[in-house]
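Thread: quick sanity check before group meeting

JM: Hey all, I'm pulling together slides for Thursday and realized we never actually wrote out the predicted structure for the chain we discussed last week. Dropping the sequence here so it's in one place. If anyone has concerns about the input, flag it before I start.
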Amino acid sequence: MNNTNKPHKTPQETAAIVERSLRRRYWAERRFRFYGLAAVIAGMTFLVYLFFTIFSNGIGAFRQTEVRLAIYFDPQVIDPQGTRTTADLLAADYQSLIRASLKARFPEVEGRAQTRQLTHLVSSSASFDLQKLVARDPAVIGKTQDVWLLASDDVDLLEKGHIDRKLVEAERPLKDEQLRWADKLEAEGALALKFNRTFLTGGDSREPEKAGIWGAVVGSFFTLVLTLLLSFPIGVATAVYLEEFARRNRWTDIIEVNINNLAAVPSIVFGLLGLAVFIGFFGLPRSAPLVGALVLTLLTLPTIIIASRAALKAVPPSIREAALGMGASKIQMVMHHVLPLAMPGMLTGTIIGMARALGESAPLLMIGMVAFIVDIPKGITDPATALPVQVFLWSDSPERGFVEKTSGAIIVLLAFLVVMNTTAVILRKRFERRW
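JM (edit): ok, ran it. Output follows.
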């Protein structure tokens, strides 16, 4: 019988085979690590580029060009009757005071067309600033006073270097004469970039130089506070019941599955639900923080419930057994022992849920918070908007000046998100107890 067995390999051959196999494994491992590192570097590169773009575009929103003018508060224009009543002071033509001050500084300007171009150097909203100044201090009537007023959006873009002077006149928003006037004002120290208080303290406006985020901040504040007051107690109570008191049966299984599924539902679905139920059925006012809070409560409840249940599960069973062994009732055991130990995790989950609610815009758009709101809301039923919606509105505006406002609002929104997430981390590190 023929011997078909293969000849045995020598130890040197076996060692060579093993070495080749190890080299292939090590090379595959190094290649996998390289791919992972490349993916991390690529992701960080895109993230850094995103933040660089946002901050480079948005930092200009915190500075605004202002013009210093010597305004003569002419009594014949402001209050010809000398009554000094609030109604007469508010009804005066303050734009004519600005026009007169500019023509006094540039006496060579003649004709209606040139005067219109000269007046365009100052924001059309500057007359309202003079109106507020006179209403606050009527003693200025009859005096000449240097006043810093907002420059127009085009002059602001010129000062920030967003207008190319080398372009032909027809392709620039500012004419050659306007450039000469702006240069003269700057040379005299009457044109300067200053901190833009209006951006942080004003409401929305059609004029980029006058637009602010304070109305959106107040609207977001009312919405988030009401969302917290509704979602936190309901979410914690639901988690405590499901984890500590509910019997394990088919109904509780269905509830748990639906809670987990709701956490993955697109946010716009909650907006449609709020539009149909809270506005269509209950008749609540559109574009109100009250409705926004109800919709965001539905959005954040699954997150808070899941986080709260995880925090309750992290409490060791020995705590429960010790409390019950000392004669405590089940409610006393939960309220006095389990809940205080689980509260840091619950607060962390709640803050994360609130941070998500702060960044949501789709459900708020569905309930009408996309409206143009100038006034600062004073209550939960007043028309309002929110920071994410304000970003959406400004990003859709055609004016170049709103590009800075959009990025500036994103910076403020990111700052709030960073603060909220940092608070969640601090709470977890401060109160977390390891067993």
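AS: nice. The chain has two domains: 67-195, 214-431. DSSP finds 18 helices and three strands in the chain.
JM: adding both to the slides.
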